[in-house]
Every structure is written in structure tokens, then in C-alpha cells.
Amino acid sequence: MKRSSALLIVAPMALAVVALLLLPLLVDKARVLELATSMLKEQTGATLEVGGDIGLKLLPRIGVSLEDVSLAMPGEAEPSMRVQSLQLGLQLVPLLSGDVAIDWLELGGLDYRLAAGKQGDKVDTSVLSDAQLDAYYAQRRREKAKSAQAAGVLAIPLALEVATLKVSDSRLQLENADGGEPTIVELQRLKASDINLEARPISLTADIRLAGEQAVELGIQASVLVDQAQQLVTIEKLALNASGATAQKVQLRARGTADLDRQTADLELRVQIGDTRGEGSLVYAAQESPAIDADMHFDRFDPAIFALAGPEATSAAADSPAGGDDPLPLAALRDIDTRATLVIDEALLAGHTVQALQIQLRALEGVVEVLSLTGEVYGGQLAAGATFNGRHNTATLETRGEVRDLDIAAALAGAGTKPLATGQASLDWELQGAGRTGNELVQALTGPITLQTSQVVLRDIGVEQLLCEAVALTNRETLSASFAGDTRFQALEANVQLADGTATLRALRADLDHIKLTGSGSYTLLDGEFDTTFKARLSPELESVDRACRVSKRLTAIDWPLDCSGNIDGEPGKWCKVDTAAIVKDLSVNEAQRKIEKKAGKLLDKLFN
Hints:
The protein is of the alpha+beta class. The chain contains 11 helices and 28 strands. It is 22% helix and 46% strand. The chain has a 28-stranded mixed beta sheet that branches. Strand 16 (352-364) and strand 17 (367-377) form a beta hairpin. The model is unreliable at 1-27, 153-158, 310-322 and 588-604 (pLDDT under 50).
């Protein structure tokens, strides 16, 4: 609510008091009301009507009581404010010297309707073209600069002294600019003590209910100082407790200052949402950029804490689409003008836990720059940066970073994938993409990824056994040794190229004890399908595993094809097989070549000897 609008609640009472100063103390009640409403009309253009009883008491204090009061502002066909009962108590001695000192002001059944702003005040950027968006950003910058130059015109000229203010059983109705349902603010109880504009402490308590399908309950306690001369509000203490908006109760504690001229606030905050606690500072500047500058530290972060409260939230979540093919929420992003530094001891992001997370970001006109992001993820060190550009209708994403010594088993478990492997992995990436939906953005990601690992064990796939079985087959023998069901790699590394939603594995290299693998393949990001082909070179030491695995010179000279394909959610034991037909073909070719070379050698011997 604008400050000028809020003052309309107090102005009728203050002007009525001014009218009393001009009256003989024994004038009749009707005459008091007539002069008060006349002065109010002259000063503000507002029309005050009293449809109920009027009470006036002069001693020992001046007391005024009104029932069924309505106030219509200029241009209003219907009154915007109604009060069922109003009681006002004035100190007599200050009045005799020309001052106004209100002992008490009690409002019961206040109903105040705040008209919506112009329809043009809020622009739906989701329907604008790229050219229109550019014009919109330029116009908004001009308006902000103009507003900043005009800062200071909101000074409050009202002198106000109220010892006690009480409001009960009241409500504010905030009209919706687009014609939708209004926002109803129920002011169940409000009490303020020593209201003044001379920088003395004002004590305030309130119980507020935001009506709606999921009602929100607010409890407020505050101590503030208002300095009219400096246009400065000092918040000594603010405690706000909220319930109903989320599944967890919210507690906010704040202190700081607000400059009414510049429309700025500099606050120190402490917040608790369920078991999550945070503290830090926030600077708000309505006419500057960034509008919000925050530096916060949280002990943990889990998006689930923002889940809606009540049974409706569960059904709404179940009925909502997955969202991958829904348009990106760019319109909401374009209204954000924020710079933030965040430190989070433990964060849950997309199902993954990140420790010691530190983020520096800047959001303006639909562009979010993650200037720095560091943390610990599954035992590895994460360092990354990114720029998401949603200025236009097709968003772009650029990201680069690295992860060092990631625990593979923990990462797979965090992703909800089967425990396919153990060991450590290091990744580097530099990716770009563009799209209008989440899935489009993923499909369009392009760029290189490098992978290096150590101590990797692939579960439920016995590569050594598969190759030994093929060797034994060529030797026409049977294996007698027992083989491990897993594959232990001495080294595993790959260069990956993302494009068109597919990760193409290039220069894939893997070393086992007596086997070296090289190959290539592909992996589709959205459905998890993969297809890789390896060429295995066998070492003569393979015989140490099983006598039937002995490798002759002719067997070490060929590439042993190993084909692996399937889905990441499938059975690992069915992924890979040795192409024995290709092996027989290679052996035949090599044997024929060996015989030709042998005959050619004999002919050469005869020619030269």
C-alpha cells in the first residue's frame, strides 16, 4: 500500500480534531460534525459521512465517538473506507495551547478498499516480441531514473501524536488490476503506543490474516522510530511470525533503517523456516539498481521448505505436469533486479546435496549471472559459473566449471540411479544451449566435457570374463577359474562432446590389469540410452588368470571387439558382449596374411640365395 493511501485512514480524524480547535467548547455535536466534514472536504476533497450516533464529551478529556462512518475520496462513486465505530480521546490542556495530543484512537470494523493501479502498470512480458522486450527494458530504465530524480517528494507533512491506537475486526481490500479476485487483508488486532513523528520509540503489535484458499496468519511485534524531519524510520526490533503460506512456520527478525525520501531500506535479518536458519543483511532501493542487494548465510537449504501448506498442496503437486516441455518462467525472472552473495552450509539442489556452497549472482532484466559457485559435492570440489539469459523469448545458457575427485557411488545414489560403479571422477565442461522449454535447453546443449577417473569398479559387468571366454573359445578350451562379477579399471578417461541432446564419447580409453580398451560411443541425455564399441588389446599375462586364457602372438595382434549398449536403468549384466564373429574374421585374415608373408619370404630366399 502506498504511504499516501495509508495516510487517508488517519487524515479524517486529524482534520476533525483541527476543526475542534476552532469551536467554542460548548457547541452542539451536529455543529462539530458539520464543521469537521466541511474542513475535510476543503483540505482533501474527501467526503465524510456519519450514519450512526455521535458522542461528544468535554471533561475531563475531550472524547468523540462516531458510528457508521464512511469516507469517499475525490472521484469515488462509492466510499473507499467505512468504520463501524470510531472513538477518539484528546487531552484538554494541550488543546488550550493550540497543540493536538490524542490519548486514544480506537477503530472497530474498519473496511478499507484500495483501488487497483492502472492496467498498464503491470506488463505481461510473456506475450511481447524480442523487439518489444528491448523497448520495455529501455522504458523501465528511463522510468526508474525519472523516479530516482523525483525522490523526496513523498515527505509527510502531517503532525501526529497518538498515545494509543487500537484497531480490531477490520479488513483491507486490495483490488486486482486485471479484474481478478481482490486480496483481503484481515486486521484482527492492532495496537500501537506513543505514535509520533519525532523519533521517539513506537511500540506496535498486530495479528493479521491474509484470506484466501490457503489463509496466511501473521503475528507482528515491532519497535520503531519515525523522524519526520529527516524522513527516516529506524527499526529497533521487528519480529514477524507467519504460518499457512508454507508447510513450515516462518520466523523473521529484523532491525535497521529506512529512508522515506530515497525509498531505501538497510536491514539486518534473521530468518527461520522450520529447522532452517539464516542471517545476514539486505539493502532495498526502489529507484536504484540493484533494487535488492543481499548477503545471507544459511545453515541449510531445501526447496521443500517452500512447499505449500495444507492438503491442497499435495494434490496440486500430483496434478502438475513434469514441466520439461512447459515454457520457461521468463516473465517472472525479468522483474528481478537483485545482487546476492549466499553461503549455505548444506544445500539440496535437484536431489543432490552440496556442502559449503557459496554463490555470487546478479539478476537483471531476465539475465542471471552466476559469477561464482563453489562447494563440496559427494566428496568432490565444485567450481563453476554460468549465465542464463532470458531477456528474449528464446533463453540461452552458458556454463563452465569443474568437479574434482567426485565420489561416483555417492553421486549415483544421489541421482536415484542404480549403484553401477564406485571410485572417483573428475569433470571439466564448457557448454552452451538455447531453448524455450527446459527440455529444449537440455537438447540444445553443446560443448566439450572431459572425464578422468581413478579406482573405478564397474558393478555386475565382468569384462575380463567376457574376453577370456572368447579367448578360450578360439583355443578350443574351457575356463576353469572363477572370475569376479565386477570390472576393476586401472584407468578410465574420455572426451565427450555434447550436441543435439546426445553425449558423444570420443577417445574413450580404459585399462584393466591385462587388457587395454579404446573406443567410442554415445549417450542420449533425456532417455538414458547408450551405445559404445570398444577394441580390446590383450596381454600375454592374461594366461595368469586362467590357462585357457593364454594369448598367442596371433591373438595379441588383433582387436577384440566389445560392444556395450542398453539403457542406464537396465540390467548391467546384459549390456556388453564380445563380437566373436568379428574375431574369427580377423583371425582368418591375419592367418591368410601370415601364410602369404611366409610364402613370399621363401620366394625371396630363392631369388637372392
